[in-house]
Amino acid sequence: MAYNTLIVTKEAGVATLTLNRPNKLNAWDEEMMQEGVQAIEEIRSDLDVRVLVITGAGRAFSSGADVTSLARVTERRSVRDELSSWPGIVTVAHQLRQMDRPVIAAINGVVAGAGFGLALACDIRIASDQAKFSQIFVKRGLVPDTGSTYFLPRIVGTEKACELMFRGNVIDAYEALRLGIVSRIVPHEELMDEVMALARELASGAPIALGLTKRAIYKGASEIDLAAQLDFELYLNSLLFGTEDFKEGVMSFLEKREPRFLGR
Predict the structure, then answer these.
(1) Where in the chain is the domain with CATH 1.10.12?
(2) CB 97 within 8 A of CB 147
(3) What is the SS3 assignment for 125?
(4) Sequence-distant (≥ 6) Cβ neighbours of residue 224 within 8 angstroms
(5) pTM of this prediction?
(6) Per-residue pLDDT of the chain (264 residues; tens, 9 = 90+)
(7) d(Cα 173, Cα 189) in Å, to the nearest integer?
(8) Which of 52, 172, 43, 147 is nearest to 105 (CA)?
(9) In the CATH scheme, what is the code of domain 6-203?
(10) Facing residues of 137 across strands?
């Protein structure tokens, strides 16, 4: 499907979703929100896609919600209307966390506000050395959203999350790395090569096992009962024992070769 505000490409099990409003720093207007929900659903439904990469066109990953668009929405909708449903970018963040395959954010530049929340919803974040990060919501008179108040404290701790959100200041890629917001920094011109190399590596893995591993990780992050998590891990593996991929994993080990996983 063709989109006006997004570019979706697929190759060798990897889908790349590029936010494509570079003249607006890839800010999310209503059209992008609608198309984002549709695009993620399209990608999720494509069983040939094993990994999703998200990045931005131009010099930004995403500066968040389009403030001009927000002003128009505020003029014509009541607060009650706003609270009755999730904006599209919030839905996209939820879709990414629920997606049963790895999602990598290639953070190529500015990432702020809801764009920052969207990046936090991804499983792995790799940053260009030119990336800049800001939880800018407070400077717009807003509470951080798009999952920011859920994701960020779990990554950097409550106190540091408070500082970043209360101040709304800008941090560079190296501070983001120190805080654990990104897993690595690469030279700007090498960003997509590095990200795609990782994406292809993950795409060669066992897709069912990767999807269930993602589910187990996020359940474990909030699970307070170790015994319950141990039981959940055993339950997931009991499902995987019946898959062709498990058999292939065992046979490839015995035959001393790389496995060829088919996702079944």
Answers:
(1) 207-254
(2) yes
(3) strand
(4) none
(5) 0.91
(6) 789 999 999 999 999 999 999 999 999 999 999 999 999 999 999 999 999 999 999 999 999 998 776 555 555 555 445 544 567 889 999 999 999 999 999 999 999 999 999 999 999 999 999 999 999 999 999 999 999 999 999 999 999 999 999 999 999 999 999 999 999 999 999 999 999 999 999 999 999 999 999 999 999 999 999 999 999 999 999 999 999 999 999 999 999 989 999 989
(7) 15
(8) 52
(9) 3.90.226.10
(10) none
Architecture of domain 207-254: Orthogonal Bundle (1.10)
- Taking CA 60 as the corner, what is the angle to CA 48 and CA 27, rounded to the nearest 5 degrees? 85
Residue 235 tokens, joined? 């339950």
Alpha helices by DSSP H, 46-190: 67-76, 79-83, 88-98, 113-121, 148-156, 158-167, 173-179
